[in-house]
Amino acid sequence: MGTPAPTRTALADVQTWVAEVVGRTLPAQVRWLDGSDTERADLLAQAVREGVLIPLNQTRRPGCYYHRSHANDVARVEDRTFICTTTAADAGPTNHWADPEEMRARLLALLAGSMAGRTLYVVPYLMGPPGSPRTMVGIELTDSLYVALSMGVMARVGTVALQELERTRTFNRGLHGTLDLDPANRYIAHFPQDNAIISTSSDYGGNVLLGKKCLSLRIGSWLGHQQGWLAEHMLIMKVESPQGQVTYVAAAFPSACGKTNFAMLIPPAHLAGWKITTIGDDIAWMWTDATGQLRAMNPEHGYFGVAPGTNTASNPNAVATVTRDTIFTNVALTPDGDVWWEGMDGAPPAQATDWRGNPWTPASPEKAAHPNSRFASPLINNPALAAEYDDPAGVPISAIIFGGRRATTFPLVFQSFNWIHGVYLGATMGSEMTAAAAGTVGEVRRDPMAMLPFCGYHLGDYLAHWLAFGKKLVNPPRIFHVNWFRKGADGKFLWPGFGENMRVLQWVCERCHGHADGQETPLGWMPPPGALDLEGLPGFTSERLAEVQAIRPEEWHRELDLQAELFARLGDRLPKELHYERELLKSRLD
Ligand code: GTP
Ligand code: SPV
Ligand code: MN
Q1: Test site for ligand 1: of 257, 402, 441, most ligand atoms within 8 A of the Cβ
Q2: How far apart are CA 397 and CA 474, in angstroms?
Q3: Ligand 1, from 209, 306, 434: best to mutate by most atoms within 8 Å of Cβ?
Q4: What number does the ligand 1 atom closest to the CA of 263 have?
């Protein structure tokens, strides 16, 4: 009966590797996670006993817990993130490169004996739904209970992953050691050629939940380049019109620039006939099917969302999502065992404990919640989860939207003339930096396709891959650029944003189906006067629309200079088509 041998080989590979890591890191015990509810209850109780988690008010937030990270460990660290390909040229000029053998030796030395007295958790996990040929298996070995529990929210963990291993036979090897959290020993190292990741001396988010940015994006993009598909920093949403027409949309905005909010959008009263449901809020794997249709799936199983600014006006679905089974990190804690953050509903609490553990009142000069404080919630908590969220075949994408956080220059919305022009729009994206990564908040930097921190190979090759990929598409999706963040002379956002973004999305969907007009401008197609439905937006006059849509040539000439800097950096691996698009835009503006 059958030939079980390969199965045993794959599991035996895992066992051999775990034994190797145990021999090096010397944990007091090893615990393999099965992903069951009883195991989770047991680990949560242990986390509370060990002070890793604080239980929140279980009447108000059943299953919810609070965690504080070390104050020096609150965001991704791009400076300490390495792509360890055989040659530096393959990692490209926008990644930090290190020699794979040197980096591995350095990190294994740091990890030697580092888990003495601790528990090593073996976390088998899936990125993608069970049963999909695109789904990947990862095994994360971590000495952090917080990481093990967070992985249980963000991915499908335990037995389900070991079962899938029988099909894939290969798995990503992720090793995470907390060490002493000294930033000098912090490394997020990727070994794409070995399908391996080693992360040290951090215990925060994208640095340590290795299935997310490390596997699904950095290693994923590298594999996608080899295998002919795309791993992208994109949300995926389903849009249903009042007439029942369905459009699936993917959108790339840089970190903390609105993906979760857009993916969970609730249309304003005037457009109440439209319905949005969420497929993913951060990562999309995209490929072409046998008919040449672009398809996409969300490999994650949870949301690791920005807490500040989340309220019943901005994102009611997120507010509902975080009412149960959620781990909050670095928000503020109220005396009645609830959480609070800047931009939550209602008045601030009279007193609270801030994200550092210090007493806080509304008079305190410091923020109560860290600007990059986050919630980790299961996808299934989202009242607007799309039925297709775990379809192994993914969903067919009709529109791709790129967008950055730009106080000037970029209008609210325009559409590319074609695929190549659209790739150029994504390639030249700029955005003001946010608290999601260590660095200078507010400074504009180029963030091609929101993938600057996440592309696991040469960005020039990546852009060439996008162009080549487009040639396989029979009916390529329409590509758009949006900017929710343009500011007026008063320094305030010109566009109300959030649910009102439905007005832009409506035009996007109607353009995809050939139902809306576009006006040709130097930048691309724009909605002509009257094409954006602005009814029921009091105070949003046609003058204000003109301001948010304005194309100012002097700003654009500065923008083109900044694009030239990026292009020069990418050198001769940048596809010539993109130089050509820049030249064309320049001449259209003159
Ligand atoms: P990552 O999880 O870091 O990848 O971020 P994200 O792209 O999912 O960003 P998210 O939706 O969490 O939004 C980040 C911040 O942008 C929050 O503080 C939001 O309040 C703010 N934001 C989101 N959408 C809008 C909008 O339409 N207008 C304005 N002005 N702010 C927005
Ligand atoms: C981002 O920074 O884009 C995030 C959060 O989605 S993290 O998982 O920390 O990377
Ligand atoms: Mn993200």
Answers
A1: 257
A2: 12
A3: 306
A4: 11
Band the pLDDT of 441: cuts 50, 70, 90.
Answer: confident
The H or E element containing residue 542 is helix 542-549
The domain locations on the chain are 10-52+78-227, 232-300+387-589, 303-381
396 near 475, Cβ under 8 Å? no
- 540 backbone dihedrals φ, ψ, rounded to 5°: -90, 90
Active-site residue among 64, 214, 257, 512? 257
- Topology classification of domain 10-52+78-227: Phosphoenolpyruvate Carboxykinase; domain 1 (3.40.449)
Supply the mean pLDDT for the chain.
97
501-531 confidence digits (pLDDT tens): 999 999 999 999 999 999 999 999 999 999 9
pLDDT at 539: 87
CA of 206 to the centre of ligand 2 (A): 5
For ligand 2, residues with CB inside 6 Å are: 76, 205-206, 212-213, 255, 282, 304, 436
> What digits encode the pLDDT tens for the residues 47-73?
999 999 999 999 999 999 999 999 999
The least confident of 104-108, 227-231, 266-270, 536-540 is 536-540
DSSP for 462-486?
A: HHHHHHHHHHT-SSPPEEEEE-TT-
**Residue 2 pLDDT:** 46
CATH code of the domain occupying 303-381: 2.170.8.10
* Token reading at 310: 């989340």
Contact 501 CB / ligand 1 (< 6 Å): yes
Active site annotation includes 257 = yes
Q: Which CATH class is domain 232-300+387-589?
A: alpha beta
